[in-house]
Design brief:
Elements lengths: L1 H16 L8 H12 L2 H7 L2 H4 L5 E3 L9 H5 L4 E4 L5 E4 L3 E3 L1 H9 L15 E3 L4 E3 L8 H5 L8 H27 L1 H20 L4 H29 L2 H29 L3 H15 L10 H6 L3 H14 L33 H15 L1
Antiparallel strand pairs: 1-6, 2-3, 4-5
Helix pairs in contact: 2-10, 2-11, 3-11, 3-12, 8-9, 8-10, 9-10, 9-12, 10-11
Membrane topology: Multi-pass membrane protein
Keywords: Membrane, Transmembrane, Transmembrane helix
Subcellular location: Membrane
Amino acid sequence: MPGVTSEASRNADYETATSFLGEWGRFQQRVFILLCLSFIPNGLTALSMVFLADTPGHRCILPVHLNLSAAWWNSSIPLEEDSSRGGALVPSKCSRYKLEHVLNYSERGLLPGVDVNLSNVPKEGCLDGWAFDQSVYTSTIVSEWNLVCGESWKKPLTSSMYFGGVLAGSFVSGQLSDRFGRKIVMFATIALQAVTTLIQIFCSSWIMFVILYFLLGLEQISNYLVAFVLGAEILGPQVRTLFSTAGICLFFAVGYMLLPLLAFFMRDWRLLQVSFMVAGCICLPLFWFIPESPRWLLSQGRIEEAVAIIRKAAKINKIEPPAVIFRTLKNGGKTQEKRAHNICDLLRSPNIRWLSVMLWLVWLV
């Protein structure tokens, strides 16, 4: 296994070269806290579907111009057993009595349940739409685009599309960060999350929303994974373990806990999306405080930039760095040449090519 041995040797060389910084100086503390803060918006969006797509109580709308008696107006919706309420009879959510029959009975002065056996009255769907209960939510995507009854399949599909984006992002994020750098990709995906969420706020259709939700899942997991790698590469062995377990999980959980609090005060799904966008925008200024990964810079042959970051870290930690920090690191006897990359380089990756083929096949199906 010569490749594995070489990689382990380079890691050991890097750890030795930067050991003078210590494990928990002010530089490491700053990187640890700021990277952990960047996970809070991810915790907000990960389960946002619970509130964005909750289904309020609903029933069929009756046209207001109908000339119905009060008795028939109140009895125009059939009663059905609700298993969630112990079999209690509740108004149907997806059907109503045919209006032509109801109008005929009302004009003739017949009373429902007295002169007319309601079980014999024909039913029809909610042809005029639904009235949604607004006691809990002012609006959700379900009430916005009537994702109930015959359209109820769109709600779980929306969630599936988000996690499809998460799957795609799991393939793409590593390739992107290897090509263009951890820091650039991390903050680019944070910015894209904010932009995607902003566009979602003004969505005019479910199709537009679900496509953007797919992209949001891709961006969210890319941000998560790249920030994870960036912290693991900058921090020392002991702090790295704390960061990758307690640090990330606890701050991600903070986002989880803030989600229901925000949803309690923001009962409209568009307004809730605004809070997600603001959370992402708050993280963007961290760009000027979180450095690029020195390990990645070294792998690209950008030794001067890596040295500059380590010297700045030593200054923050109030430590005098050695005159020469990185001697020639072992890399098969050669130093990697610095090479500029562009977005087209991704197509040369077998993983990305296979992912493109799979997404294309899914789209065709």
